[in-house]
Design goal:
Layout lengths: L13 H19 L3 E5 L5 E4 L1 H6 L20 H12 L4 E9 L5 E12 L5 E10 L1 H43 L6 H32 L8 E3 L1 H11 L1 H6 L3 E5 L7 E3 L1 H17 L6 E9 L2 E7 L23 H4 L7 H11 L3 E6 L5 E8 L3
Parallel strand pairs: 7-9
Antiparallel strand pairs: 1-2, 1-5, 3-4, 4-5, 6-8, 9-10, 10-12, 11-12
Helix pairs in contact: 4-5, 6-8, 8-10
Length: 375
């Protein structure tokens, strides 16, 4: 379809021919443009569309849309109609972002700019519409907003995680310096609390440093032959004090023998400790945690199952993202920096393994990871 309408009845003057040549050049440029361009009458009915316009909507021929209202192509029909109303009411140019649907049913977002065309007498005769598919840009903006929100929450969480033990340490230290704790047993109790709080601070600082190494590309592992059973036993022992504080029990379901694997023993123990700590944090006092290992095919699987609060299904795919923490009072009140699972995923990925979770709200969770067997 052409913008030009042929007139073969009357002979053309040089000025008319010049105008037509200019129009033809303009049409050629519009047809070749990578930008989606359309013309419409003042009411919004399409009178011309270029190939780029057809491509955005996955249409085959101009006839698929010519004569139709532009608003009919948009999900937000009223929003599109408002653009043309504003032009008819005197505005020269209008811009909008609209959600539209392609011929195959897929949704996308278009950035629209519509300008009024007037004749020599100033009367509106049409509208030029330029469009761009801005779906990826909008998705990126949304991801950036979400990342910023998560980063802000992370800073708030870490500040709280740092402040709480520091306040405790400062308080107990002050009491002891003032000589207000003369009883040796009470002193021992206070010192134990102070030690545990300093351990908590150390773990948090180590996590922050670990994330820094990951983000800067300085994260690495040193593989050596090892037994995962030893890693699991050591990890369970290292969280013994946390288990005792909540009166919980850890059950190990490990086969008599497991194949030797190639891995970084310290890093893999860090993964198991992170998963155990997570289970302890979100489980009720007196409950049981199960650590299970399986020898399957080309890999060894490790599962940590708790009887805790569970995780909403919609949150599960994002659990291993940097800074992410599940919303909700039950999870927020448990505290934490939101780094343990992210670090664990990075460690498992570095071993060419997988990490995942299965959970139902109110029924506990099972966090699992796999490590390939020694080649």
């Amino acid at each position: 379809m052409s913008i030009l309408k042929p007139n073969c009845i009357m002979p053309k003057s040089p000025d008319q021919r010049k105008v037509e040549e200019q129009l033809l050049m303009a049409e050629t440029a519009i047809r070749a443009s990578h930008s989606a361009i359309a013309l419409a009458d003042p009411s919004g009915k399409l009178t011309y569309v270029n190939p780029a316009f057809l491509k955005i909507w996955s249409l085959d021929e101009p006839e698929d849309v010519l004569g139709k209202s532009f608003a009919d192509l948009c999900q937000e029909e009223e929003k599109a109609k408002a653009v043309f109303r504003a032009l008819r009411d005197g505005s020269d140019t209008e811009a909008a972002e609209l959600t539209a649907t392609r011929k195959d049913g897929t949704e996308f977002i278009v950035g629209l700019r519509a300008s009024l065309i007037r004749n020599t007498e100033g009367k509106p005769t049409g509208v030029t519409i330029s469009l761009a598919d801005i779906t990826q840009r909008k998705q990126l903006e949304e991801k950036q907003r979400e990342l910023e929100r998560m980063r802000t929450e992370f800073i708030s969480n870490v500040s709280h995680e740092l402040r709480t033990p520091l306040t405790s340490l400062k308080g107990f230290t002050k009491l002891m310096l003032q000589g207000k704790v003369p009883d040796p047993e009470t002193q021992k109790e206070f010192l134990t609390i102070m030690y545990n709080q300093s351990e908590h601070l150390q773990r948090l600082i180590e996590s922050l440093l670990e994330v820094s190494r990951i983000e800067s590309g300085r994260f690495s592992i040193k593989k050596e032959p090892l037994q995962l059973k030893t890693v699991i036993h050591t990890a369970v022992e290292s969280v013994g004090s946390l288990i005792a504080q909540k009166g919980m029990h850890v059950k190990e379901e490990l086969p008599d023998t497991l194949p030797e694997i190639e891995g970084d023993q310290g890093r893999l123990m860090q993964v198991v400790v992170n998963l155990l700590s997570n289970a302890i944090k979100f489980s009720p006092d007196g409950s049981e945690i199960t650590v299970k290992a399986e020898n399957t095919g080309d890999e060894i699987l490790v599962h940590v199952t708790d009887q805790g609060v569970g995780i909403p299904e919609e949150a599960q795919p994002r659990l291993f993202q940097r800074f992410y923490q599940v919303d909700g009072s039950a999870t927020r009140s448990a505290g934490g920096s939101g780094l343990g699972l992210y670090i664990s995923r990075q460690i498992v990925d570095a071993h060419a393994g997988r990490v995942w979770v299965k959970s139902k709200e109110g029924k506990g969770s099972t966090f699992s990871f796999s490590i390939p067997k020694k080649a």
